[in-house]
Amino acid sequence: MSDLTINISRLSEGAHQYDFDAEPKDLELDTRFTDRVIIHVLLEKTGSQMHLRADLRTNGRFECDRCLDDFQSSLSTHYEIVYLTEDGSGHDTTESEVQYLSPDATTIDLGDDVRQFLLLAVPQKLLCNDDCLGLCPSCGVNKNKVSCRCGEKSADPRWEVLKKLSLN
């Protein structure tokens, strides 16, 4: 059980707000995550269900996919989960993930969900900036830092046949 638990044993109906922060290592996040994770939670209880909305923020150090330089980036994400007791029914699940709790559950542990949603928030294509020029495919220099003349060289003459095909 992580430190990101909410005691629901005597939770009254209505809206409840919680604020947490955690070290990335406590959430089993890898070393790319460099700053504390800030978590703001709104939990609304009605009858046998609870609707949780969580906003997550942190920073990370990543490697650019184009130029291979390290860069710092902030990450933020939002998720929603509906908790139902195993005997609960009749909830529309089109907008939220649903998790079932046993009727004798006394706490909700947010640790795994926070970790998973933060990992999903990392972009698939990591770029230091949108205009990153990347590495020169010929000489390997970082084109953001150094200009090279490799692009001015004439192309291999064997490719000329393909150029003619694409022009037709």
What can you see in these coordinates?
The protein has 168 residues and is mainly beta. It has one domain (5-132). Helices cover 11% and strands 36% of the residues. It has helices at 111-121, 160-167; strands spanning 5-7, 14-22, 37-46, 49-63, 70-85, 97-101, 107-109. Strands 2-3-4-5-6 form a 5-stranded mixed beta sheet. A two-stranded antiparallel sheet has the order 1-7. The model has no long low-confidence stretch (mean pLDDT 88).
Mean pLDDT, to the nearest integer, reads 88
Number of strands: 7
Portion of residues in beta strands equals: 35-45%
What percent of the residues sit in helical stretches (DSSP H or I)?
Answer: 10-25%
Largest sheet: 5 strands, mixed
Domain count, please report it. 1
Low-confidence stretches: none
- Roughly how many Å apart are the termini? 65 Å
The value of Rg in angstroms is 24 Å
| Anisotropy-based shape | elongated
The structure class reads mainly beta
Alpha plus pi helix count: 2
- Strand order in the sheet with the most strands: 2-3-4-5-6
User: How do the SSEs run, as a string of H and E?
Assistant: EEEEEEEHH
What labels would you give this structure?
two-stranded antiparallel sheet; 36% strand
Would you spell out the secondary-structure blueprint of this structure?
Blueprint: E1 5-7, E2 14-22, E3 37-46, E4 49-63, E5 70-85, E6 97-101, E7 107-109, H1 111-121, H2 160-167
Parallel strand pairs: 5-6
Antiparallel strand pairs: 1-7, 2-3, 3-4, 4-5
